[in-house]
Amino acid sequence: MTQFTIFVLLFTCLFTCVPLLFAQENKAVALDKKVKAFLNSHAREWHDWNVPEADARLLYDIIIQNKYTKALEIGTSTGFSSIWIAWALSKTGGKLITIEVDESRYRKAVDNFRKAGLSEYIDARLANAHTLVPGLQGPFDFVFSDADKEWYKNYFDAVAPKLIVGGCYTTHNVSDRMNTGFGLESYVEYLKNLKNFETTFDDRGAGVAISYKKSGK
Ligand SMILES: C[S@@+](CC[C@H](N)C(=O)[O-])C[C@H]1O[C@@H](n2cnc3c(N)ncnc32)[C@H](O)[C@@H]1O
């Protein structure tokens, strides 16, 4: 390769790669601005059993810290936690599947995702998670379980084999300390006794069980 060819290649790269990098950076900055503006302007509108902001931020931080990209949420409601999860995934290059059985909440969530600028990071499904979840292909590296509490263990058993080692399964309204009123004590014991998961609890919001998968079995 002649010196001239090398120069031409470098020159071409400079004028194609650098603008591309700037474009990506600009897209991320613009998205941050749009999501923050959406969350600020809708701050008082989350009345559909949506998680407290402390819990949403916790999910966001877990995804960013672990660079997760394949997320599943069971229980979308109007999309508050999905927005935080998808916002994190927009930074890791990931995507979220989220499931809701109630059509009006599903429609509101889809509208919220569009307004927040996050639609491309979310595959929102209107379905009964009881039947949809066992058939999902996976693999997943992050799960947030926040639908019907009496089905928590069934969801866990269906998804845990599809969670990669190093992945994280989070469950809402679950605490080691207090009785959350959902009758989830046996579920907590179940999580704590699993040999291939290490579970801790975050009680800053409504209680989140954070279960990291340590090995296949
Ligand atoms: C606690 S809310 C979810 C809140 C949401 N994660 C948020 O923070 O914005 C639980 C939702 O799960 C939905 N749900 C309950 N059972 C379900 C099922 N079998 N399949 C799908 N969604 C279900 C309910 O309709 C409800 O909207």
From TrEMBL:
<feature type="signal peptide">
    <location>
        <begin position="1"/>
        <end position="23"/>
    </location>
</feature>
<dbReference type="GO" id="GO:0032259">
    <property type="term" value="P:methylation"/>
</dbReference>
<dbReference type="GO" id="GO:0008171">
    <property type="term" value="F:O-methyltransferase activity"/>
</dbReference>
<keyword id="KW-0489">Methyltransferase</keyword>
<keyword id="KW-0949">S-adenosyl-L-methionine</keyword>
<dbReference type="InterPro" id="IPR002935">
    <property type="entry name" value="SAM_O-MeTrfase"/>
</dbReference>
<dbReference type="Pfam" id="PF01596">
    <property type="entry name" value="Methyltransf_3"/>
</dbReference>
<protein>
    <submittedName>
        <fullName>Putative O-methyltransferase</fullName>
    </submittedName>
</protein>
<keyword id="KW-0808">Transferase</keyword>
<dbReference type="InterPro" id="IPR029063">
    <property type="entry name" value="SAM-dependent_MTases_sf"/>
</dbReference>
<keyword id="KW-0732">Signal</keyword>
